[in-house]
Amino acid sequence: MLTKKVEDICNRQIEREGYSSNLYLAMASWAENKGMAGIAGWLYLQADEERQHMLKFIKYVNERGGCACIPAFKQPPVKYKGVAEMFKEVLKHEQFITASINEVLATAIAENDYATTNWIQWFVEEQLEEESGVQLILDKLSMAGEHGLYFLDRDIMRLRGEN
Ligand code: OFO
């Protein structure tokens, strides 16, 4: 059985993972409308992954005798200044999510909840990958400059397996 504090912070994470999914969907839609099919495809996949993260939390909370709440999500931005700015936003958001996952871990430790302490490790690892994957795209973007955008858009899917 989850303690109230662990249940609450997991529910907060359900909202954050769901928002991440919607944020990347909004970015995917923006990129698709700008004709960047590769970048849009990368973001659509990322949105799916975030939904899976949300589902993992929902199932875990319910399995441990808590109650997973499905929240309302605030609307993500519709427009972005450019591709580099957008990926900087992605990195900033992932750093926020990493801090948020660390707070779930800290709460589980403080509550002597060893099962959650153990279970959350998957997310700790996942966040390393998420941040380094986005950093890799930002590095390629700054190397390529705006003129190289065409090639990045064409090749971005290959980067998913590279970090
Ligand atoms: Fe769920 O890892 Fe990104 O937000």
Question: What structural keywords apply?
Answer:
mainly alpha
What does this structure look like?
The chain has one domain (4-70, 80-157): Ferritin, CATH 1.20.1260.10. With 163 residues, the protein is an all-alpha fold. It has helices at residues 4-33, 37-63, 83-110, 114-119, 121-144, 149-159. The mean pLDDT is 95. 77% of the residues lie in helices and 0% in strands. The structure holds hydroxy diiron-OXO moiety. Hydroxy diiron-OXO moiety is lined by residues 17, 20, 50, 53, 94, 97, 126, 130.
Shape: elongated
Beta strand %: under 5%
Taking the alpha carbons of the first and last residues, their distance comes to 37 Å
SSE class: mainly alpha
Write the CATH architecture name.
Up-down Bundle
Can you list the ligands bound to this structure? hydroxy diiron-OXO moiety
CATH class: Mainly Alpha
**Quick one: how many beta strands?**
0
Write the layout of secondary structure elements.
Blueprint: H1 4-33, H2 37-63, H3 83-110, H4 114-119, H5 121-144, H6 149-159
The protein binds hydroxy diiron-OXO moiety.
Hydroxy diiron-OXO moiety is lined by residues 17, 20, 50, 53, 94, 97, 126, 130.
